[in-house]
Design goal:
Strand content: 15-25%
Largest sheet: 3 strands, mixed
CATH class: Alpha Beta
Oligomer: single chain
Shape: globular
Radius of gyration: 14 Å
Helix content: 25-40%
Distance between the termini: 38 Å
Number of domains: 1
CATH superfamily: BolA-like
Strand order of the largest sheet: 1-2-3
Number of helices: 4
């Protein structure tokens, strides 16, 4: 299982997520000093009931805690959207 799939699987399992999508954007950062150590750049969308009642920062802290080991060695940068099931189902306004 590749690094992206491992991250996706762990988020789904640990956060009991209804939907997880992790995109490896490391290729966009080739030559970046922070990427030299082998850590990748990832973008994630995570939908979980565990985010209910939590502010954005608290949701992000929960994700960071879940991926603590990966952040030490596999992840250099992580951008994320953390949504509740209700927020995920609401169509974006035009």
């Amino acid at each position: 299982m590749d690094r992206r799939a491992q991250i996706e699987s762990k988020l789904a399992r640990e956060l009991e997520a209804l939907h997880v999508e992790v995109v490896d954007e490391s290729h966009l950062h080739a030559g970046h000093a922070g990427a030299a150590g082998g850590g990748g750049h990832f973008r994630a969308v995570i939908v979980s009931e565990r985010f209910e009642g939590l502010a954005t920062l608290a949701r992000q802290r929960l994700v960071y805690a879940t991926l603590a080991q990966e952040l030490e060695r596999d992840i250099h940068a992580l951008s994320m959207r953390t949504l509740t099931p209700a927020e995920w189902r609401v169509p974006p306004s035009s």
